[in-house]
Amino acid sequence: MAAEILNRFFHPEYLVKKEYRLGDMPSGPQAYKNVLHIALPSVAEMVLVSLISSIDMMMVGNVLGAEALSAIGLPTQPRMLMLCMFFALNVGVTSIVARRKGEGRQQEANSTLRNAMMIAMMLSAVLMTFALIFARPLMMLAGGDTADSEKVFNDAVDYFQIMTYSLPIDALSMCICAAQRGVGNTKITMRVRVLSNLSNVFFNFCLIGGNLGFPRLEVKGAAWASVIGLTIGLFMALATVLVSGKHKGYLHISRHDRWKFDKDTMLAIGKVSGNAAVEQLGVRFGFFIYARILFSLGTTMYAANQICMQLLNLTFTFGDGLGVAGTALVGQNLGAKRWDLSMLYGKICQRYAVIVSIVIGSIIVIFRYQLAGLYIGANTPNADQVIQYAAQTMLVLAAIQPFQISSVVLSGSLRGAGDNLYVAAVATVCVSVVRPVMAYIAVHVLGLGLAGTWIFGLSEIALRFIFFYPRFASGKWKDKKV
């Protein structure tokens, strides 16, 4: 009985109804292998990058303690609010490049990359200028006015200003990597981002505590290490599209190309990225308010929250990596007029998500105290309290894994189909309305601690899954044009 249930859940024969099929379907092993071919490098890239980011935070917490963890956490949402426009742009880039490859239109795929790069450079210059001028007010708005330490606030401002200088660098690198994912070159983006972040870790070691002859810059050192790592990543990303001759890849640029905005390309980017921009702005606004509410719990609980958020981001990357595979395979097969295969691969990505979520959740529950202890030095002030709060909250993190990873994968598949408006509407309502309202009730009405706030605030993740799964299974997206 159990074997039959598993067979119906995982076997491709049951994932696409017979009346939906437009041709021969791949065998079970081949279908799952096709997904892994794109997903594994992407998952490896994002997980390794997130792990390296965790090491970054561990180095700060172990050397400098809870106040420094809070200081580098406070600028996160203002910075992500600025980056959200580029996340939206990159959703369009990946989706459109994937569709153009499926249609066999290489010239238009490269035009999409060039136009997106020009948009990224212009927009990042404007946002960088704004952020540098209004750094202190932004930190106050993020919750700095409730900080129980002036040092935390001042360190947060310094960290944010230094990181802001890297905005054009980060935007351009992300744009190129997004295009490479669209054509399935996930190994390239893996190398770029992993080596970039390894450079970050090395310079963290040098600059935070003052090692190998470098000055001790503490929180500022963590910021400058990130800037250096991002710069190295940009040079590596550019190298992948500047190759000429016989080694030239599917995506390539040169100074001889037409570096002017193309009307048709801009309309396509605007159509897909515009919906994603609405989603990203709504989502980031929700995260901004949510983080401010949590910051009001105090430095100790917020430091514990930073640990749990880092682990949440790590688990998110598994879904994000599978979601990239969903976006690429759904988009490419729609371009090739095989929406039945798009549905098959989207559902296979979600099946992988279920397996991964069970494994991750189990690991978190078993090793939650050990995981929390990695992020803060045992001899730093309030370390025991931080670990206790974080370990309690990790039980909530483990419980939401099946919903979180599956919803990320399904949203990626829907984006690959061009169904961005639906994804944007659901995500905006859930994150910008449901999450902060529930968190406010938990903190300011019920007086709950960190774990209780996570239970209330993150309940919206299950709601996203409830909306995304039926939408993808319905096939309503099959006639979307991009």
Report on the architecture of this protein.
This protein has 482 residues and is mostly helical. It has one domain (37-474). The protein contains 19 helices and no strands. The protein has helices spanning 2-10, 28-64, 66-73, 76-103, 106-133, 135-141, 150-164, 167-182, 186-207, 219-241, 263-295, 299-335, 339-366, 368-373, 383-399, 401-416, 420-445, 450-457, 460-474. The longest helix has 37 residues, at 28-64. The chain starts with a helix and ends in an 8-residue tail after the last helix. The model has no long low-confidence stretch (mean pLDDT 83).
What descriptive keywords fit this protein?
mainly alpha, 482 residues
How much helix, percentage-wise, in residues? over 70%
Number of strands: 0
Tell me the series of helices and strands, N- to C-terminal: HHHHHHHHHHHHHHHHHHH
- Range of strand content: under 5%
C-alpha termini separation: 44 Å
What structural category arises from helix and sheet content?
mainly alpha
Supply Rg.
Answer: 22 Å
**Low-confidence segments, ≥5 residues, pLDDT <50?**
none
Largest sheet: none
User: Helix segment count?
Assistant: 19
| Approximate shape | globular
